[in-house]
Each structure stands twice: as structure tokens, then as C-alpha cells.
Amino acid sequence: MRGQSRILVNTPDIELWPAHLLRARNNHDARVLSRARTVLRRKRDGRFLAAVLPEGVMPLVYRLAHEPGFDAALDAVDARPAHRRAGLERVGELPLARLQERLHALGLDDRYAERTGLPLVAEPDWLAFAGFDRYRRPLWLHADAARAWMCMQAAALRDGIVLEAISGYRSHDYQLGIFERKRARGLAVDEILAVNAAPGYSEHHSGRALDIGTLDEPPAEESFERTPAFAWLRDNAQGFGFTMSYPRANPHGIVYEPWHWIWSR
Ligand SMILES: [Zn+2]
């Protein structure tokens, strides 16, 4: 195995994935992924846009040069110092300006922020691989949160408790995509907000939050609070820097989420 990258480089429209962590959807993908070091992936819908091969960039879509954000992504491919590849570089943040335009286009105005007291959350400019989630998908977190999560998961296991990650980092575009698809099906913004956090306001955008589950429990259900895993978290999570963001009767009016924890230190 060659020295494989374990970081996700983030740009406003496109993510740079280590090819070995992507799943091929067909034979053509598989051939490309086996030779690629990095794959450029569109954040909005997960589409593979281009593969970075030893001989250069191979387009995987037509009109790649016209793809929004392609130039910024190419710059990021070129600017990958070794300490970043090793996951040691300081984590920066991407700008929020473009998100605000798209929120207004969706009909989401500032009243949401006023009503909930939630701030807009910037995305980190790179994320660290933190193992696999319950669904065998790569789990991406802020580098510090990734280290803390893996330590906490191992400590729980030593106590006989299995903690599974359900979901970690999610991009603005991913959340906007959910809204756009539901709007297209005729749902009103308020109906969607009853189920999904407004794009830009989820702690998951920061890479510091994750949803935690355990064996034989459905994901993201209140019943999680009656599991030994939850009791373990309640007693130990703070020691690893994790706290529950939305306890009962939280000031944001967000439903009780015993599975949602955020790292901060
Ligand atoms: Zn969550």
C-alpha cells in the first residue's frame, strides 16, 4: 500500500477525496479509482467530476472546465504540502458569503437565526478521517474532534460499550441539496425545517459534531437515552471534550437529541 492520504480537502463547491476511500459505482469508476490518488467530488450531489492520476487530471464529466468551483479545486490539488497530507496542518474555515446568497434564493431569511438563536457555521478547509460509520462510510471530522472521537470510542470499548458513529461532518451543499429536492417536490420551507436543520446552521458543518448510536438501536431516536451507551456517554464524554448539544428544553427550540454530541475544548 502506498502512502495513502487520510484527509478530505474542502473547497466551496468541490471536495478532494482520497481515491482509496471512495466506493466505485460501476466498472469504469473502479478502473479509474484504482489508479487515482485523488478524486474531485461535487458536494451538491456527490458526483465524481475528475480523477487526479499520475499523468494528470482525467475528466469524468463533460464540460469539466465550466464546472462551478473547478479552478479553486484545482488550486487545492496543487497546494497540498506534506504536513497537510499527514493531517498536521492547522484547520482553517471557508467563507460564508456564497451560502447566504443561496439561503435567500431558497426563501430562508434571517428570521430563522433570530428565532432559534443559532449562528451560521463555517465549514473547515480540510477534515480528518475518523474511521468508518455504522454504514461503512468514511467518517470525516475536524482533526481535533477526530482524535477525541477515536480515543473515546476505544475507551468505551474497553468498558464493553460499543459506540457507533451515525453521521459526522456534513457540508452546506449537502444540506442545501436536501432542501432543494424537497422544495422541488412541493414541500414548504417551514415543513422542511420541522425535520431538517436549515443549511448553514447545523453543528455538523463544523466537523466537530457527531451523531452517536449503538448496536441494535435505530439511529437518531430518543430511545437511545435508555441504552448503556448513553449512560456511558453521560458519565464519560465530558472527559474527552464532548457535550450533548440539545438536551431537553434547550433554548434553541430544537427537539431533544440524546445522540448528538459536539467536541469543543
Ligand atoms: Zn446531529
Characterize this entry briefly.
The protein has 265 residues and is α+β, with helices and mostly antiparallel strands.
Describe what you observe in this structure.
The chain has helices at 27-35, 70-78, 82-85, 97-105, 111-116, 143-158, 172-184, 189-193, 228-236, and strands at residues 7-10, 14-18, 38-42, 48-53, 56-59, 126-132, 138-141, 164-167, 209-213, 242-244, 260-263. With 265 residues, the protein is of the alpha+beta class. The strands form two sheets. The protein has a seven-stranded antiparallel sheet, with helices on both faces. Strands 8-9-11-10 form a four-stranded antiparallel sheet, covered by helices on one side. The relative contact order is 0.12. The structure holds zinc ion (ZN). Zinc ion binds next to strand 9.
Q: What are the salient characteristics of this protein?
A:
single chain, binds zinc ion, globular, 30% helix, four-stranded antiparallel beta sheet
